[in-house]
Amino acid sequence: MTCVVCGGPVGEAVFANAWEKSRKVSACCSPDCASAFNPDEHWIPSRRPAEPDAVEEARLVRLAGERLRKGDRATIVTRDLLLAGVRPVAVRKAITTTKLGSESTDIATFTPTRQRGWVGALIFGAARLAGPDEDAPTHVEDALGDLDRWTKHFT
After folding, report:
1. How far apart are CA 58 and CA 50, in angstroms?
2. Which residues of the chain fall below pLDDT 70?
3. What is the model's pLDDT at position 139?
4. 138-151: b or e for each residue (b if 16 or more CB lie within 10 Å)?
5. Which residues of 39-60 are buried (b: 16+ CB within 10 A; e: fewer)?
6. Which residue among 21, 27, 54, 127 sits deepest, i.e. has the most Cβ atoms within 10 Å of its Cβ?
7. Distance (Å, whole) CA 69 – CA 152
């Protein structure tokens, strides 16, 4: 088991707070490391989680796709999948598929605007503003960065 803050070995696990102590996922090696714990920065667990069976993994990936389509940030969904034990290759496929889907949706939303002139721009332009998150490619790149960080940590 490694410390989630400094990466050193953990003898007797110390946790940052009662919530982390109940989860027993983010162990620290000392009270100093525990006081420096930040869940947004130190999200990779002390131990790699057990992988779910194929059926459960498929269900989790399907639910992740639904969350992404509903607007959940790709980084949060990626971290949740990894912490649930989903294989990194399955997470990467889900995130990459979502990225391609958001690009094609963006193009489909924009194309009618060019075809219908000013009236179309007024109608469809407003719809485009309410459409997919403009920062979606950035969120996906951040999620893929988290995935690479996870893979590097556990290999």
Report:
1. 15
2. 99-138
3. 80
4. ebbeebbebbeebe
5. eeebbbbbeeeeeeeeeebeeb
6. 27
7. 28
